[in-house]
From TrEMBL:
Listed name of the protein: Elongation factor P
HAMAP family: EF_P
GO MF terms, alphabetically ordered: translation elongation factor activity
A GO CC term assigned to this protein in UniProt: cytosol
Species classification: Bacteria, Pseudomonadati, Pseudomonadota, Alphaproteobacteria, Rickettsiales
Membrane found in the keyword field: no
Claim: Cytoplasm is one of the keywords in the record: yes
UniProt gene name: efp
Domain named Translation elongation factor P/YeiP central: residues: 86-140
Length: 207
């Protein structure tokens, strides 16, 4: 009985943060445990060759956004699918090497290492919603909204005769943290929507 009580919490923890699946069950959007890190599936292709067993080609991106990999899983290969818990926070400010956030449910303030925000820090502004991704009790990544709106602070003036199809021009947003290519008709003071996945202009926002 003592042995069962000793190991039950460990079993429960493992079950809570990951699940065994077969390679054939991998789907786009899944987060997999791969080479001691967490990767999100971007693309998958099931292949059934004329000879040999079927397999799944998978393109994945690490949760921290640092790397992309392609891997071939056998259809019957055991893979660990990770469960990530999302918690929503408001961005407050940066203090030294930490980002200070406020939990939207409890209003508690927390400090998170800025190294987790390398890819999204340029999008942070007051009250932007940040999602912390937890795997068990560890924060493994962060996300912001797909599209965010910013005021243009610097850009070249609009020249009469330019059209929408003219070459895009650089614009500075968010206190100089964000540089985006915008259409020629965009001017200082305009609000523009930016796609945070790749930092591209989406549209001029309605005031």
């Amino acid at each position: 009985m003592q042995c069962e009580l000793q190991f039950w919490p460990v079993f429960l923890y493992l079950f809570a943060v990951s699940q065994k699946i077969l390679g054939n069950d991998i789907r786009v959007g899944n987060v997999l445990e791969y080479r001691n890190a967490l990767y999100q599936v971007l693309k998958r292709e099931h292949v059934k060759p004329g000879k040999g067993g079927a397999f799944v080609n998978v393109e994945m991106k690490s949760i921290d956004g640092a790397s992309k990999v392609n891997h071939r899983f056998r259809s019957d290969e055991v893979v660990f699918k990770a469960f990530l818990e999302e918690e929503e926070y408001h961005y407050l400010f940066k203090e030294g090497g930490a980002i200070v956030l406020m939990n939207l449910a409890t209003y508690e303030q927390v400090s998170v290492g800025a190294d987790l925000f390398v890819d999204v820090e340029k999008y942070l502004k007051e009250e932007v919603v940040v999602k912390l991704l937890r795997h068990g009790d560890k924060i493994v990544g962060v996300k912001v909204q797909d599209n965010l709106t910013y005021t243009v602070e610097e850009t070249e003036p609009y020249m009469k005769g330019q059209t929408v199809t003219s070459s895009y021009k650089p614009a500075t947003l968010n206190g100089g943290l964000l540089k985006v290519m915008v259409p020629p008709f965009i001017k200082v003071g305009d609000q523009v929507v930016v796609k945070t996945e790749d930092g591209t202009y989406v549209e001029r926002a309605e005031k």
